[in-house]
Amino acid sequence: MLSYRHSFHAGNHADVLKHTVLSLILSAMKEKEKPFLYLDSHAGAGRYLLSSEQAERTGEYLEGIARIWQRDDAPALLAPYLEVVRHFNRAGQLRYYPGSPLLARQLLRGEDKLHLTELHVSDYPLLRSEFHKDPRASVLRADGYQQLKSQLPPASRRGVVLIDPPYELKTDYQDGVSAIQKGYKRFATGVYALWYPVVLRQQVKRTLSALEQSGIRRILQIELAVRPDSDRRGMTASGMIVINPPWKLEQQMNALLPWLHQTLVPSGQGHAFARWLVPE
Ligand SMILES: C[S@@+](CC[C@H](N)C(=O)[O-])C[C@H]1O[C@@H](n2cnc3c(N)ncnc32)[C@H](O)[C@@H]1O
């Protein structure tokens, strides 16, 4: 039985980092005319009401999206992401947070496709109703990891895969890596983005070293910490591992991260970086 609900965490600093990276990847994919597939293995509910009991209980979005969405001095590279957030909050108040499927829905073109999977009994119907009128999207209640076997390579031979597990189960760490290895065997030119939380640094190190030893090249690691590593206080940082990133992504993230870190963490604690885990 899955108990994780993303509504407690929507719009927090980890979502800001994840969705910034995703928006830059999707924007870069659109520079070529050929359509592509966006595969979201752990899609969540799609839309999150920030005044819900869950979101109010943690208030995490207040130290995330609320700190940046209306800033006039935000770097231009954040525009694709922030424009989607503003689109869902046109009245000028921050009411909704668009999760990864809605971010992609807004950024994709008419010919691109979305394949979204979500297992949770309550979140799946919410996700499905967001997309019932969108002919580009297939939405399934199915295991996300399996999709990297069943849906790859895409017919268009271009694709972006987001793997964003809740890490509610310890096996999520290994399952993410195995799914990437299986997907990569079938579709070596795809862009794969795996989100990870830093709760215990040792666990992240194990995941990174499994990827380093997989033989896969061109692996970029992007991380933003709001506190120093600790073995006591829950999630202190989060990151994205991107395989086959668009060529500009490292440079874009290194340009963006100082502003993002400073704005999300005014105390200056923690760190932010984008660096090659495995180069070309
Ligand atoms: C971190 S949330 C996803 C958030 C979403 N990607 C976003 O950025 O807005 C993780 C989701 O994965 C779902 N989930 C957990 N295990 C899954 C699995 N094996 N396959 C598909 N979905 C799963 C959970 O119910 C949860 O909604």
UniProtKB/TrEMBL annotation:
Domain of life, source organism: Bacteria
Record's catalysed reaction(s): adenosine(2030) in 23S rRNA + S-adenosyl-L-methionine = N(6)-methyladenosine(2030) in 23S rRNA + S-adenosyl-L-homocysteine + H(+)
Keyword rRNA processing: yes
Residues binding S-adenosyl-L-methionine: 19, 42, 100, 118, 143-144, 164
Site residues (Interaction with substrate rRNA), renumbered to this chain: 4
InterPro entries: DNA_methylase_N6_adenine_CS (IPR002052), RlmJ (IPR007473), SAM-dependent_MTases_sf (IPR029063)
Catalytic residues (positions): 164
EC number from the UniProt entry: 2.1.1.266
GO molecular function: 23S rRNA (adenine(2030)-N(6))-methyltransferase activity; RNA binding
GO biological process, alphabetically ordered: rRNA base methylation
Enzyme type, top EC level: transferase
PROSITE patterns xref list: N6_MTASE
Keywords carried by this UniProt record: Methyltransferase, RNA-binding, rRNA processing, S-adenosyl-L-methionine, Transferase
Record-level GO cellular component terms: cytosol
Similarity comment text for this entry: Belongs to the RlmJ family.
Described purpose of this protein according to its UniProt entry: Specifically methylates the adenine in position 2030 of 23S rRNA.
Oligomer and partners: Monomer.
Name this polypeptide is given: Ribosomal RNA large subunit methyltransferase J
Organism field: Sodalis praecaptivus
Primary gene name: yhiR
